[in-house]
Amino acid sequence: xxxxxxxxxxxxxxxxxxxRPTPGLNLITGENGAGKTSVLEALxxxxxxxxxxxxxxxGLVRAGSAALEVFVEWMERPAxxxxxxxxxxxxxxxxxxxxxxxxxxHSGQDWSxxxxxxxxxxxxxxxxxxxxxxxxxxxxxxxxxGGEPRRRYLDWGLFHVEPxxxxxxxxxxxxxxxxxxxxxxxxxxxxxxxxxxxxxxxGEPLTRFRQAYLDALLPHxxxxxxxxxxxxxxxxxxxxxGWRREEMSLADALLLNRDRDLxxxxxxxxxxxxxxxxxxxxxxxxxxxxxxxxxLTALAALLAQAEHYAAQRGEWPVxxxxxxxxELDRRHQQRVLERLTGCRAQVLITxxxxxxxxxxxxxxxxxxxxxxxxxxAADP
Length: 380
Ligand SMILES: Nc1ncnc2c1ncn2[C@@H]1O[C@H](COP(=O)(O)OP(=O)(O)OP(=O)(O)O)[C@@H](O)[C@H]1O
Prior knowledge:
By secondary structure, the chain is α/β, with parallel strands linked by helices. The protein has 2 domains: 1-131 and 319-380, P-loop containing nucleotide triphosphate hydrolases (Rossmann fold, 3-Layer(aba) Sandwich); 139-316, RecF/RecN/SMC, N-terminal domain (Glutathione S-transferase Yfyf (Class Pi), Chain A, domain 2, Up-down Bundle). The chain has helices at 36-48, 123-129, 141-144, 147-161, 165-184, 189-228, 250-256, 258-264, 291-313, 324-327, 330-342, 356-359; strands spanning 2-11, 14-19, 25-29, 68-76, 98-106, 111-115, 118-119, 132-135, 235-240, 275-280, 318-321, 347-351, 365-371, 374-378. It starts with a strand and ends with a strand. It comes from Lysobacter yangpyeongensis. Belongs to the RecF family.
């Protein structure tokens, strides 16, 4: 898929700007503080419901404004592969791609959204429509941070490639909220039994989906890691389900931990505590990765997710690379961009100037310059 239009209103320093990216490589340049990252943040917000720099209420809305607005138009490949031109040489309507559009207004507390002209009930519906994979200076948390970004990573992938996952995830989240509320009010008995059963009913298949997804990512990740950071040795990924799954069912684990959960007021076992671990044949553990290696490992994981998405859905997600030159050295910049241009993915890159790895690529690139709160197309 590729974004054809991105409008931002009252987002960080931008009052009202519009960007028309091209399907291939797009470079967004500007001085420090010009607003380059904010452009990618807007796209990320539509695709994830949050910025990669935190929540909307943490400063995304322009000072003095009540709410921000993001509007995105993109082209999506049709689900059925068919020639764009018929046997008699005429264009086949609808097969060249499906135009889609989404709008989001967010005040930090309240939001409203529209998708293809209709109102959406859940922010997740917007996020499931537009697929963006972002690599930014904070992406290393996928490797060096706590479990939450790694769970989000798995769930984002599953929202996009597994249609049965989102309803299951909603069921589990609702049951977890209800169970925690009961635990806090110290209520036990039949009601708690019922929510335990619901948690187990949703949590077991949810875990199977996550485990299968991580297994499916592994070949992509291992090949990318070998290409980007061969010194760390073969990479492996291991799912950690959030309870001792090899010994007992989730229903049994919930029952076993009930007294402890009643004392603490929250559910201590289950897929909401899941994680996945990374191991490397050439290193004792992820703690031994250098900062640069941690970034490359995170990038391998993110690109693996994009590759897997492309294999499943028949088209690439949009790839956003924030401040590429400060994240990767020239050789790695070039390697990554070669891969992405070879796959015909739409790529949006930010930088104070053209990253050396992009200049060395000699591929066609559309350049946009951000200055004084405006975005303008510039000469390549
Ligand atoms: N809520 C806000 N209201 C108004 N202006 C804001 C708000 N939040 C951030 N800004 C300003 O918007 C700009 C955001 O810049 P952004 O981080 O997108 O720039 P950048 O071009 O990526 O910078 P750098 O190269 O330094 O990373 C900064 O000038 C910042 O001071």
